[in-house]
Design a protein that fits this description.
The protein is an alpha/beta fold and 344 residues long. It is built from 11 helices and 13 strands. α1 (12-23) crosses α11 (314-329) and α7 packs parallel to α9. The longest helix is centred in the middle third of the chain and has 16 residues, at 147-162.
Length: 344
């Protein structure tokens, strides 16, 4: 058995990590750390986990966390790097925060103002990107992608790699459930504010996932990708529905787009191109580590349209972290990860 620990376990992504670790056939749960929650019962914050009723959160202390075989960090952005510096350099870590995602220190300073200085970058843990699995399996430090970044990157990567869409005019409008904002109290996330309402936020190129998506897709395309991204807060607890469009290359048809996507994902356990004419919905991915995709050619506007649905807490966070950990440890990639969603 592999002993794994979780730092930042009191949050939504941390709770999802605990749920998935408990069901993993080769993981055993070690220290469960939560700074402000130290001493509290796990079930006080995560009542969905009665099997952990005898466990309590501990302080986020390097000495306790260093005893595990692999550590998951589910800390707020900007907090992972300081903890990492206090841990053994050979300890395998998957960081669910943003601290090690970006290669560009200037982009880090611009999109994460007020955070500590850029700490460098780790292997980017989106296994379905071309060539990514080899790098993930060969490292002991992985930066887990952001939730929006996962949906958008998987939507467009095959089309950019095949040269059937242009990289310089990518437009994304994506809606996320409220859990994507974390557990910290906010008046904007009160039920009275959210229910019955869709609202845009961090529009105009200011959302922190913008440079991350551009970086991932530029690596696939081999040339600079420019993104216009508008996120939307949706009145649901979890889920992402992302609509990504890009200009079609000359002569590209809907059949071409579909074939490219099929060739890229036909053998992927967690990425599913739906039957022609069937559009993704967030309910179908709830609780699963899967992304559902559909693609169309808007010949009137000359654009490819890709719609993606995922659970932002699973494939967009905790599930993907475990998928990366499986690869890092040489385990079966799908171990402990649900493919079927929970509906209704």
């Amino acid at each position: 058995m592999v002993t794994v620990g979780v730092a930042g376990a009191s949050g939504y992504a941390g709770g999802e990590l605990l749920r998935l670790i408990d069901a993993h056939p080769q993981f055993t749960l070690g220290p469960v750390a939560a700074g402000s929650g130290a001493g509290r019962s796990v079930t006080e914050l995560h009542p969905q986990l009665p099997q952990l009723a005898d466990r309590h959160f501990v302080a986020t202390e390097p000495e306790a966390l260093a005893t595990v075989d692999l550590l998951f960090l589910a800390l707020p952005h900007g907090e992972s790097a300081a903890l990492v510096r206090a841990l053994p350099t050979d300890l395998p870590i998957v960081d669910l925060g943003a601290d090690f995602r970006l290669d560009d220190a200037t982009a880090w300073a611009e999109y994460y103002p007020g955070a500590p200085e850029h700490a460098g970058s780790w292997v980017y843990g989106l296994p379905e990107l071309p060539g990514a699995r080899v790098h993930i399996a060969a490292t002991h430090r992985v930066a887990n992608p952001g939730c929006y970044a996962t949906a958008v990157s998987l939507s467009l990567a095959p089309l950019l790699a095949a040269g059937v869409v242009a990289p310089e005019d990518v437009v994304v409008v994506a809606a996320s459930g409220t859990s994507g904002a974390g557990r910290k109290p906010s008046s904007a996330l009160l039920a009275s504010e959210v229910m019955g309402s869709l609202s845009a936020y961090k529009a105009g190129g200011t959302h922190q996932h913008t440079p991350e998506i551009e970086q991932a897709l530029t690596g696939v395309a081999g040339e600079s990708v420019t993104l216009s991204f508008t996120p939307v807060l949706a009145p649901m607890p979890r889920g992402i529905l992302a609509t990504t469009t890009a200009r079609l290359a000359a002569g590209v048809t809907a059949e071409t787009l579909r074939q490219v996507m099929h060739d890229a994902y036909a053998h992927e356990p967690f990425v599913h191109l739906l039957a022609d004419g069937v559009w993704p919905g967030t309910a179908a991915t709830a609780g699963s580590n899967c992304v559902h995709l559909q693609v169309a050619a808007d010949t009137h506007a000359g654009r490819a349209v890709v719609v993606a649905a995922e659970d932002n807490l699973v494939k967009g966070a905790a599930g993907q972290a475990i998928q990366n950990a499986n690869l890092m440890l040489g385990l079966t990639e799908t171990a402990g990860l649900p493919i079927a969603g929970v509906a209704p």
